[in-house]
């Protein structure tokens, strides 16, 4: 027995021992540019040994043969008496490829596409993969091929032949999204992001973050690498405030002191002022002293 996908044909050994070579398999739909090509290889020996039923075959296939005139035609295939493919489940569909890739649909409408590596896509009431091992009627179901494969999941969108978006997950678990247009995400609930490594964001244009509630940034240290930084509201520093390139400021539109400090001030270096300084209601510029006689020591400053 042998399979020839290039000709959609098979070699068959009939029950009476007769051999039929290169028998074409009938398809539900077939043309020179459309149809379905899927002949499962039986995994047997080549040459004359392919006719020996006692040879080691990976799969046992039963074919239904008819004749058009003198020409044999394979009408299709039937499952052997014992197989992995029959299930005692109502409205259960399973489509299994020779590679052991398969898809299922159950009576509840749950859909699953499964790869032997363990990768699967599921649309169902439960997100958990349904393991069919030994769940068939004959308890024979077993996925054995391509179980060690390292596979990618890739979705690519092209416009007139030019790729405009690619979503890819590689075997290492890396996720990549590349798109030529805009990316919009609208979430009605919370967003939780947890990164075991670094977070890098590079924005070519402007960046705006608007929060309807309080915003907290917690880190061992924060560096703002910007020529200018503007704070439009009140700024409270609970720790020490250190600046290295001087400081300038002016009173706000409501008047009052430009800088108001509670506590002692220690200055290393000179202080230059274009206006007056008042300490304890005593003006540095306009304060007066009293003296009993010319040349005598003056009194301490008075307001």
Jot down its keywords.
303 residues, five-stranded mixed sheet, 14 strands, 0% helix, rod-shaped
Written account of the structure:
By secondary structure, the chain is mostly beta strands. Among the domains are: 77 residues, no CATH class; 67 residues, no CATH class; 30 residues, no CATH class. Helices cover 0% and strands 23% of the residues. It contains no helices and 14 strands. A 5-stranded mixed β-sheet has the order 1-2-3-5-4, with no helix packed on it. Strands 6-7-8-9 form a 4-stranded antiparallel β-sheet, with no helix packed on it. The chain has a 3-stranded antiparallel β-sheet with strand order 10-11-12, with no helix packed on it. The mean pLDDT is 91.
Mean pLDDT: 91
What proportion of the residues is helical, as a percent range? under 10%
> End-to-end span in angstroms?
119 Å
Instruction: Give the strand tally.
Output: 14
Largest sheet: 5 strands, mixed
Number of H/I helices:
0
Strand order of the largest sheet: 1-2-3-5-4
The structural class is mainly beta
Strand coverage percent: 15-25%
Whole-number radius of gyration? Answer: 42 Å
Order of helices and strands: EEEEEEEEEEEEEE
Protein name: Phage baseplate assembly protein V
Walk me through the topology.
Layout: E1 2-4, E2 9-13, E3 19-25, E4 62-68, E5 71-78, E6 93-96, E7 102-105, E8 111-114, E9 120-123, E10 153-159, E11 162-169, E12 175-179, E13 278-279, E14 282-283
Parallel strand pairs: 3-5
Antiparallel strand pairs: 1-2, 2-3, 4-5, 6-7, 7-8, 8-9, 10-11, 11-12, 13-14
């Amino acid at each position: 027995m042998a399979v020839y996908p290039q000709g959609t044909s098979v070699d068959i050994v009939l029950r009476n021992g007769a051999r039929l070579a290169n028998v074409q398999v009938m398809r539900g739909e077939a043309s020179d540019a459309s149809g379905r090509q899927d002949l499962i290889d039986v995994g047997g020996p080549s040459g004359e040994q392919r006719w020996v039923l006692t040879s080691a075959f990976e799969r046992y296939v039963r074919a239904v043969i008819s004749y058009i005139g003198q020409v044999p035609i394979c009408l299709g295939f039937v499952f052997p008496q014992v197989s992995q493919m029959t299930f005692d489940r109502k409205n259960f569909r399973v489509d299994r490829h020779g590679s052991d890739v398969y898809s299922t649909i159950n009576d509840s409408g749950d859909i699953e596409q499964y790869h032997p590596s363990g990768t699967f896509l599921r649309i169902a009431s439960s997100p958990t993969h349904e393991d069919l091992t030994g769940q068939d009627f004959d308890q024979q179901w077993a996925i054995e091929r391509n179980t060690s494969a390292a596979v990618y999941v890739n979705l690519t969108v092209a416009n007139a032949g030019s790729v405009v978006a690619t979503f890819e997950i590689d075997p290492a678990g890396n996720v990549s999204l590349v798109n030529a247009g805009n990316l919009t995400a609208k979430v009605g609930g919370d967003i939780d992001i947890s990164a075991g490594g670094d977070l890098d964001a590079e924005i070519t244009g402007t960046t705006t973050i608007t929060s309807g509630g309080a915003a907290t940034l917690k880190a061992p240290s924060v560096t703002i690498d910007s020529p200018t930084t503007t704070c439009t509201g009140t700024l409270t520093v609970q720790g020490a405030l250190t600046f290295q390139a001087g400081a300038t400021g002016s009173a706000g539109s409501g008047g009052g002191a430009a800088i108001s400090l509670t506590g002692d001030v220690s200055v290393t270096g000179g202080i230059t002022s274009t206006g007056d300084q008042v300490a304890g209601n005593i003006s540095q510029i306009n304060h007066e002293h009293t003296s009993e006689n010319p040349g005598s020591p003056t009194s301490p400053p008075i307001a």
